Amino acid sequence: MPNTITTITARNAAMTISISRQKPSIARSMNLLVLQMLRAGVTSVKGDYRITGRISNMADPNYMASLARGLEVMRGFSREQRRMSIAQLSHKTGIPRASVRRCLYTLAQLGYVASADGRNYALQPKVLGLGHAYLSSTPLVVTAQPFLDRVSETVNESCSLATLDGEDILYLGRSVTSRIIAVTLNVGSRLPAYCTSIGHVLLANLPRRELDQWLAKAELKPFTERTATSKEKLRDELARVREQDYAIADRLLEIAVRSIAVPVRNAAGTVVAGINVIVEAGRVSLRDMRTLYLPHLQAAAAELGAQLAP
């Protein structure tokens, strides 16, 4: 197997290191590599899982790498790949096959995954308990549902609540109608923040330094011909969103879908989430979204935020 080239991003510079996976001493090499990166002030890297993530965590004696790997394996499953083999999960996560196998064995013993044929694994319903504990105990989620229902009933469109989670928005609440749209969303669904209306209102309200860090790491891929792939253009759009205090994502993710979102601020004025309405682009005009939907979203967001403690 040829050498793997991994680009390592440091605070003030980038350096490239060539690693051979053929050598039996790879584990020792990795340990030495991590020490070298720590001394060089490296904070994060991209590439093989064994040297990716926050390097500071690797030097933390309280950091459980095995737990981190297990969680990463669970996150490897998706709607598109509900059943996956050890090799597929290893390829997707960058975790060595032996480690993936041990993670799956442990998760299977605990009831979180199962395999009918001994080769392909799938998540089990017990996983829902992890998310339910959060959803049922978080004031934002519990308090938001009546407001989502009210907006949905008033405008006869689906209304959603989401927060920023890394490069994505994570849906925490939904109120749906019988209308069918191209994007299928549920609680727990994730979408790229840079091409969604909720993502725009959340990114627009980040402190400047946090937004700079987010943009530095973001990979802007085109989903449609209207998707912003230039970081400067995205920054300009976020400035407009911040000024007007709402965002419209017009066919950025799906060519037949547009959405409008507003930020939700808690009692201290901090943006903690966003709520939006998603419609078919051919059925609802941009003007109608601003005149018919925006006022209801703004009212719901204000009332919801007033009930959220800082």
Secondary structure topology:
Layout: E1 4-10, E2 14-19, H1 26-39, E3 42-45, E4 53-54, H2 55-58, H3 65-75, E5 83-85, H4 86-93, H5 97-110, E6 113-115, E7 120-123, H6 128-135, H7 139-155, E8 159-165, E9 168-175, E10 190-192, H8 197-204, H9 208-217, H10 231-244, E11 247-250, E12 257-265, E13 271-280, H11 286-306
Antiparallel strand pairs: 1-2, 1-3, 3-4, 5-7, 6-7, 8-9, 8-13, 9-10, 11-12, 12-13
Helix pairs in contact: 3-5, 4-5, 7-11, 8-10
Describe this structure in a few short sentences.
The protein is α+β, with helices and mostly antiparallel strands.
Reported CATH architecture of the largest domain: 2-Layer Sandwich
Q: What percent of residues are in strands?
A: 15-25%
* CATH uppermost class of the largest domain: Alpha Beta
What is the name of the CATH superfamily of the largest domain?
Answer: GAF domain
Largest sheet, spatial ordering of strands: 10-9-8-13-12-11
Number of helices: 11
Q: Unreliable segments (pLDDT under 50, ≥5 consecutive)?
A: 1-27, 42-56
Number of domains: 2
Based on helices, strands and strand pairing, what is the structural class?
alpha+beta
